[in-house]
Amino acid sequence: MDPLFEIFFFAVGAAVGSFLNVLIYRLPEEKSIILPASHCTICNHAIRFYDNIPLFSYLFLKGRCRNCSESISLRYPLVELLTAILSLMVYWKFGPSVQYLCAFVFVCSLITITFIDFDHQIIPDVISLPGIPLFFLAGVFVMKLRFLDSFLGVLIGGGVLFGVAFVYELITKREGMGGGDIKLLAMIG
Length: 189
What we know:
mainly alpha; 0% strand
């Protein structure tokens, strides 16, 4: 693999990771992911472009807001680093290709869902519901999986978990897991 491509895909991953932080913070709050621009969650001061460089800005600012000096969560650079590393790994697997793009979008969906679920115990429908047909079609047409295999993945992934949740609720008379988990497994297929 070409080192310049590796640097490029790592940097793309870090930049995308910065956007995933926006999704992780704003989706559960049902806030716009576009406006307002990135800002400190404590003092609401807009973050300047040079203070918003993935990974580096956190180090340069020593983990503190330039305006109010409050601590910036370590999660922000960790999500950027995780996304950068996974982007690089997906590049190593697929090279610069449509397969890379599909796999990386899938990975980004899972990163976003993981952190939102960890913080709020929810899996946003805005990610999982479009993800079901999107990743099903990507599996068939881009990853070249057989139609039946992809279809069964969706049915079994969501269906088995739905069955477990249904039986649990029948026995205990209370919900054991939310529908988000079922939709997530259908999306993963």
